[in-house]
């Protein structure tokens, strides 16, 4: 069964996000378009044969905790081995650090394919890759040599250990401690929860990146350091040493993504757990943000992958399921006529267009962010800072829009199937359960919205917002030259002004120090901003689609663009009205009144 559209992915890479231009840069000189196509084909074949056929089994035979260890589905053995051999862990890293130095634009395309095939898999790969990259970026040469090579081969797994039972997303309240030892290492003590991919039978060791406080460190986030804490100590010859008392004390039983293990860890409870300071003391959160920012884009990409798979599953059903009859010109149905396929009903087309618009718009946004990251890595000075700022302002949107809108898209896909969508025999119910976590992973929607409105909008005196507006204006001007797109360009310009109007209403509250009022509707602002950003992506796709020679492909893109502007962009005025409403009900409602 199809779970993504290779033609659309290729179109986005080349025609919308200019992959070929990136491949002309020195950093990516080892690659050309044919070699990239070989990579895409190899990952598709890997996904077709080793990932997609097992997604239902991984849900039905989830990871389990037994005798102090986690056991995952047996297919993870060959998957992780093959992923290591293919270089998928080191794909984006510099060649000098053992990486393949592939553009992030391509790396995220490769991972999207795998996530559409089986969203239970890529977390194991991505966390190991991200943890290795943090060690490479901030760690000593000794830490790099000791841990990174086997992580890149997927012999050892990597994790990020932030959340604690009493703190949740409030990292300033973590209590895990680090006591200095005479040899320069630290004794780590504390509990961490919701730690993904932290133990299973197919890795010899797990390298945990743990946030903790050194004794005497300042309160709040300023006193947090980052430590490398291996599950097993590593001997000087590189062999696995003694158990480091990084205990798995439980496996969380989840609603979805049941093949992707999620654990409760205890450091230092059963014996001394040794950690090694990564970088400088009290700078751990800034180091971890490198991994968190990568993980946020990856989370949005995962939501896009799940929504893509759900769209293609419901599309296939709609093309095969006969039900009802088309209306005659009289407005009545002929009971003697043959049943029509449900894809011929306008409301079913609406639901499929809804899914398609969200999936392809979200994927384009993920690739847009990837392009900016590639440009950030290959430029200097002011130009480098420009792409950094663009990456920063889009990061929370790239995490949030695909997770929130993607969740709605999958739910709509289930609706296409009607009663069968609710049955375990069909996979839509699993996709709905799988995608539900995406808006919670790596900072909830509320946290991402506070980040966007509270930090990213105002950073460098609004420089990021101005740069993004300039990018949109460039697209609007190009679309205004195309007769078929002129109305959409004008509508994007109009809706962009709704963001300006919302900020004009909110900023006085911030300037007066009333930050609670300024941020009270941050999630509504995120929805408005995200919808406009996806409208921008669809206008970019519309411009590129006009040059396509295949009529069906071109018409498909233009119809979906039309859908997005009629049904989604039209919501923006209502969102702006809510943001600018005088009511302060969410502030004034006292807890005891609920």
- Low-pLDDT runs of 5+ residues are none
Number of helices: 20
What order do the strands of the largest sheet run in, or round the barrel if closed?
4-5-12-7-6
- Distance linking N and C termini: 48 Å
Radius of gyration: 25 Å
| Percentage of residues in DSSP E strands | 5-15%
| Largest pleated sheet | 5 strands, mixed, barrel
Give the overall silhouette: globular
Average residue-wise pLDDT: 95
Descriptive overview:
The protein has helices spanning 6-16, 19-22, 33-51, 55-60, 76-86, 104-117, 122-138, 141-152, 284-320, 346-377, 381-417, 428-435, 445-456, 463-480, 486-511, 515-519, 522-545, 551-568, 572-579, 585-588, and strands at residues 64-66, 69-71, 156-161, 177-180, 186-196, 205-214, 225-230, 232-234, 240-243, 246-251, 262-267, 273-277. By secondary structure, the chain is an alpha+beta fold. Strands 4-5-12-7-6 form a five-stranded mixed barrel. A two-stranded antiparallel ribbon has the order 1-2. A two-stranded antiparallel sheet has the order 8-9. A hairpin with a 5-residue loop joins strand 8 and strand 9.
């Amino acid at each position: 069964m199809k779970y993504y559209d290779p033609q659309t992915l290729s179109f986005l890479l080349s025609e919308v996000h200019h992959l070929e231009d990136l491949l002309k840069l020195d950093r990516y000189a080892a690659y050309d378009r044919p070699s990239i196509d070989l990579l895409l084909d190899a990952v598709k074949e890997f996904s077709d044969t080793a990932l997609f056929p097992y997604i239902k089994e991984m849900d039905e035979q989830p990871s389990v905790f037994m005798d102090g260890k986690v056991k995952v589905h047996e297919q993870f053995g060959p998957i992780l081995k093959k992923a290591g051999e293919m270089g998928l862990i080191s794909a984006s890293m510099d060649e000098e650090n053992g990486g393949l130095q592939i553009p992030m634009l391509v790396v995220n395309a490769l991972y999207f394919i795998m996530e559409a095939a089986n969203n239970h898999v890529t977390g194991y790969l991505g966390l190991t890759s991200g943890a290795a990259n943090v060690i490479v970026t901030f760690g000593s040469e000794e830490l790099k040599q000791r841990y990174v090579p086997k992580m890149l081969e997927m012999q050892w797994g990597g994790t990020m250990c932030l959340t604690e039972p009493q703190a949740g997303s409030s990292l300033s309240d973590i209590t895990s401690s680090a006591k200095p030892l005479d040899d320069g290492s630290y004794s780590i003590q504390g509990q961490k929860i919701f730690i993904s991919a932290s133990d299973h039978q197919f890795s010899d060791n797990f390298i945990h990146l743990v946030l903790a406080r050194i004794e005497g460190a300042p309160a709040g986030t300023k006193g947090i350091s980052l430590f490398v804490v291996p599950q097993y100590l590593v001997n000087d010859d590189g062999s696995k040493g003694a158990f480091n008392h990084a205990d798995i004390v439980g496996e969380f039983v989840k609603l979805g993504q049941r093949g992707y293990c999620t654990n409760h860890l205890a450091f230092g409870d059963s014996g001394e757990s040794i950690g090694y300071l990564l970088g400088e003391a009290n700078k751990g959160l800034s180091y971890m943000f490198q991994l968190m920012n990568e993980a946020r884009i990856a989370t949005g990409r995962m939501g896009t992958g799940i929504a893509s798979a759900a769209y293609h599953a419901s599309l296939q059903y709609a093309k095969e399921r006969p039900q009802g009859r088309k209306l005659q010109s009289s407005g009545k149905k002929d009971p003697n006529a043959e049943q029509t396929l449900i894809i011929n009903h306008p409301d079913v087309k609406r639901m499929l267009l809804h899914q398609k618009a969200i999936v392809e718009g979200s994927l384009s946004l993920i690739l847009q962010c990837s392009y900016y990251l590639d440009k950030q890595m290959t430029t200097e000075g002011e130009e480098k800072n420009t792409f950094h700022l663009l990456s920063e302002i889009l990061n929370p949107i790239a995490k949030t829009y695909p997770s929130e809108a993607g969740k709605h898209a999958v739910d709509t896909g289930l609706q296409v199937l009607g009663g069968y969508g609710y049955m375990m025999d069909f996979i839509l119910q699993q996709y709905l359960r799988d995608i539900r976590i995406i808006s919670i992973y790596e900072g909830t929607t509320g946290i991402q919205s506070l980040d966007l409105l509270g930090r990213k909008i105002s950073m460098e005196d609004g420089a990021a917002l101005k740069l993004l507006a300039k990018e949109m204006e460039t697209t609007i001007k190009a679309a205004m030259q195309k007769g078929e797109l002129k109305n959409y360009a004008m509508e994007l310009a109009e809706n962009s002004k709704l963001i300006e109007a919302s900020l004009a209403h909110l900023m006085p509250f911030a300037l007066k120090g009333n930050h609670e009022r300024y941020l009270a509707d941050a999630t509504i602002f995120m929805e408005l901003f995200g919808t406009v950003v996806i409208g921008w992506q669809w206008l970019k796709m519309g411009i590129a689609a006009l040059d396509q020679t295949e009529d069906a492909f071109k018409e498909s893109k233009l119809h979906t663009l039309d859908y997005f502007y009629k049904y989604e962009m039209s919501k923006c005025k209502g969102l702006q009205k809510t943001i600018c409403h005088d009511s302060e009900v969410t502030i004034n409602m006292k807890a005891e009144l609920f």
